[in-house]
Amino acid sequence: MAKNGGKKGAGSAGKQPGPVPLRELLRVPQGERVDLSSYDAAGTPGGPSGKAEGVAASERAGERLAELQERLWAAGSAGGDRRRVLLILQGMDTSGKGGTVKHVIGHFNPSGCRIKAFKAPTADELKHPFLWRIAQALPEPGEIGIFDRSQYEDVLIARVRDLAPRDRLARRYDEINRFERSLAEDGVTLVKCFLHISYAQQKRRLLERLDNPDKYWKFNPGDIEDRALWPAYQEAYELALERCSTRAAPWYVVPADRKWYRNWAISRLLLEHLEELDPQYPKADFDVAECRERLLAMP
């Protein structure tokens, strides 16, 4: 297994001219077959040299993320900028979807965030097309939306548990691609992250929950049943990554065995996308000097 690479056997053919953006290192190539066993869940591609440096780097990134998020929020809420960001987190149980929200999104102003954890669809949601409930939770202009699970549940668990006919599932990949393309055209930057945890690491984390009474609330006996279906879930994820990593909305495979790297990588991916957007504070639509004079003249 590759120790520092995201994908096993992925080497460098020569000296790089400069640091490679993390989005290039972790992006799932469009149109290529995906084999998750070729990705090292404990890898640290492009990352700091160790945990201490990684935690420090995440903290430094947090300051910059907070600044860019404020600028995005200001531009959207007061400047008419329709752009927004949607972070999608998918992964097996214990891969760290909730932990990512806590450690990465904690740097943001809650006023400019919209967080949604998708559970099993309600009876009312089942009356609508599967993308309906997703559309209701999308970020507004200027916001950063965070999805803990997403529309992909309808081609993941639905496939593994045979909750829908296979021909209907096959059509859903194209529906998701059209949906995401329309979002991108409307100013949504999608950052889709698959938190890639290994089979062995998942067992360790599940046992840690059973060993700590304070973590019992996070444990569900159903997690053991899903673990027994690991090969089927890996196959479902591979197919979703392969079919739905597009130019408008690529997938990123984030090694998740090391929590510090997972948090750093998500922070870095968000930072790269926000810096590319480069949101700006809106200019005043009033006479600044005149308002200053009026205030100074008041007792």
Any chance you could write out the topology, listing elements then pairs?
Elements: H1 22-26, H2 51-78, E1 84-91, H3 97-104, E2 113-117, H4 132-136, E3 144-148, H5 153-160, H6 166-185, E4 188-196, H7 199-211, H8 222-228, H9 230-244, E5 251-255, H10 259-277, H11 288-297
Parallel strand pairs: 1-3, 1-4, 2-3, 4-5
Between the first and last Cα atoms, what is the distance in angstroms?
72 Å
Helical amount: 40-55%
Query: For the CA atoms, what is the radius of gyration?
Result: 21 Å
Biggest sheet record: 5 strands, parallel
**Regions with pLDDT < 50 over 5+ consecutive residues?**
1-5, 9-14
Structure description:
- By secondary structure, the chain is of the alpha/beta class.
- The protein contains eleven helices and five strands; from the N terminus they run ααβαβαβααβαααβαα.
- Strands 2-3-1-4-5 form a five-stranded parallel sheet, with helices on both faces.
- Helix 5 packs antiparallel against helix 6 and helix 5 packs antiparallel against helix 9.
- The N terminus is likely disordered.
What are the defining features of this structure?
299 residues; alpha/beta; five-stranded parallel sheet; 5 strands; globular
In short:
The chain is α/β, with parallel strands linked by helices and 299 residues long. The protein is 46% helix and 11% strand.
